[in-house]
């Protein structure tokens, strides 16, 4: 039996993208932002599934009713019943479990391709081949399969996967035994990982059979499983949202990595050269954007805006309808929105997340 007869996609569409402030806010998070071209990151995620998974087999779990409405607006081909919103944020373990539960009701033999709504993938044909291979491996071995990305440099903002041995090949693509996950190492450790050739960036994209994942939750995160067990009998009924809210109240706040993937001893990994980027901060936006002759990445949202650079090099400039002038500066991030302006060095773009904590502490909710 082939996995292609039971292939489903689960898109987790939550999070605020705080490191892309001020463009990404609670009301308009990065997955609904047009950071690259005319499609939002969420729309790009849905479109790359064309030819891989039928629209009727695509499910979305999001974190608010407002987000659910936006998803329906941006992807009208998705069935309304396939889009569910959580009553409160409880991290990704229960979100993935809820989506898997919905898929399982439709097909108990389903294999779920798990995606995050705010990632960017440049090589879509290669992406689809990798996902098919991972799905077949997950189906054949009834286990979790991670998608690993060969590191290009010792990045300290990503988790790493140690996968030294090939278990088999499917359609010419190697499938590795997954030995261990390491979360965001320091620079020295990251250098060792990359030099060894045995480590991969953890893209966070997983593939799992529905029954295996639910049993893994039961074993490794029983409180999460118990919360979902209360929801299962009311799926598709008028009581669903009420029972879901009660279940979430008692559910633990834990990531899918900590709850399941890091604990599965039989896990596998498929390497992927797919032009993957999690678009984690403004530095990543700069790297992915088209530059002018001075190395400036200029992204205009509005119709009237204009950028002038005088001896300005290697900057990211994003704005609406303003005139932005940079003189004699290099390697900056300048993001100008209607009510907030961000200016920082590109190599310090990760510090934007600290700003969110400061704004919360100062009760500046309107800027979040």
Automatic annotation (TrEMBL):
<dbReference type="Pfam" id="PF22640">
    <property type="entry name" value="ManC_GMP_beta-helix"/>
</dbReference>
<keyword id="KW-0342">GTP-binding</keyword>
<feature type="domain" description="MannoseP isomerase/GMP-like beta-helix">
    <location>
        <begin position="305"/>
        <end position="358"/>
    </location>
</feature>
<keyword id="KW-0548">Nucleotidyltransferase</keyword>
<protein>
    <recommendedName>
        <fullName>mannose-1-phosphate guanylyltransferase</fullName>
        <ecNumber>2.7.7.13</ecNumber>
    </recommendedName>
</protein>
<dbReference type="InterPro" id="IPR051161">
    <property type="entry name" value="Mannose-6P_isomerase_type2"/>
</dbReference>
<dbReference type="GO" id="GO:0009298">
    <property type="term" value="P:GDP-mannose biosynthetic process"/>
</dbReference>
<keyword id="KW-0547">Nucleotide-binding</keyword>
<dbReference type="GO" id="GO:0004475">
    <property type="term" value="F:mannose-1-phosphate guanylyltransferase (GTP) activity"/>
</dbReference>
<comment type="similarity">
    <text>Belongs to the mannose-6-phosphate isomerase type 2 family.</text>
</comment>
<feature type="domain" description="Nucleotidyl transferase">
    <location>
        <begin position="9"/>
        <end position="293"/>
    </location>
</feature>
<dbReference type="InterPro" id="IPR054566">
    <property type="entry name" value="ManC/GMP-like_b-helix"/>
</dbReference>
<dbReference type="InterPro" id="IPR029044">
    <property type="entry name" value="Nucleotide-diphossugar_trans"/>
</dbReference>
<dbReference type="InterPro" id="IPR049577">
    <property type="entry name" value="GMPP_N"/>
</dbReference>
<dbReference type="InterPro" id="IPR005835">
    <property type="entry name" value="NTP_transferase_dom"/>
</dbReference>
<dbReference type="GO" id="GO:0005525">
    <property type="term" value="F:GTP binding"/>
</dbReference>
<keyword id="KW-0808">Transferase</keyword>
<dbReference type="Pfam" id="PF00483">
    <property type="entry name" value="NTP_transferase"/>
</dbReference>
């Amino acid at each position: 039996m082939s996995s292609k007869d039971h292939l489903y996609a689960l898109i987790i569409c939550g999070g605020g993208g705080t490191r892309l402030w001020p463009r990404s806010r609670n009301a308009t998070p990065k997955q609904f932002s047009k950071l690259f071209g005319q499609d939002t990151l969420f729309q790009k995620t849905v479109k790359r599934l064309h030819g891989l998974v039928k629209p009727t087999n695509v499910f979305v779990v999001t974190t608010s009713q407002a987000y659910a409405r936006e998803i329906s607006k941006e992807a009208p081909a998705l069935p309304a019943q396939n889009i569910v919103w959580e009553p409160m944020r409880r991290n990704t373990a229960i979100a993935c479990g809820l989506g898997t539960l919905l898929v399982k009701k439709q097909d108990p033999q389903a294999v779920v391709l798990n995606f995050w709504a705010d990632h960017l993938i440049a090589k879509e044909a290669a992406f689809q081949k990798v996902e098919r291979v991972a799905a077949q491996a997950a189906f054949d071995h009834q286990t979790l399969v991670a998608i690993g990305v060969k590191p290009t440099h010792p990045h300290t903002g990503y988790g790493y996967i140690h996968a030294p041995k090939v278990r088999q090949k499917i359609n010419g693509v190697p499938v590795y035994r997954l030995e261990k996950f390491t979360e965001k190492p320091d620079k020295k450790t990251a250098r060792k990982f990359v030099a060894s050739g045995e480590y991969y960036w953890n893209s966070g994209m997983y593939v799992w059979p529905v029954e295996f994942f639910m049993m893994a939750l039961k074993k490794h995160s029983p409180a999460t499983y118990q919360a979902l067990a209360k929801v299962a009998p009311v799926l598709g009924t008028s009581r669903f949202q009420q029972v879901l809210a009660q279940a979430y109240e008692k559910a633990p706040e834990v990531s899918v990595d900590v709850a399941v993937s890091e604990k599965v001893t039989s896990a596998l990994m498929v390497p992927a050269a797919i032009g993957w980027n999690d678009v984690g901060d403004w530095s990543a936006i700069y790297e992915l954007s088209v530059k002018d002759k001075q190395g400036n990445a200029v992204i205009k949202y509005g119709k009237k805006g204009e950028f002038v650079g005088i001896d300005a090099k290697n900057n990211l400039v994003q704005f609406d309808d303003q005139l932005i002038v940079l003189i004699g500066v290099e390697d900056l991030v300048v993001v100008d929105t209607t009510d907030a302006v961000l200016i920082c060095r590109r190599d310090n773009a990760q510090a934007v997340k600290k700003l969110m904590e400061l704004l919360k502490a100062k009760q500046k909710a309107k800027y979040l």
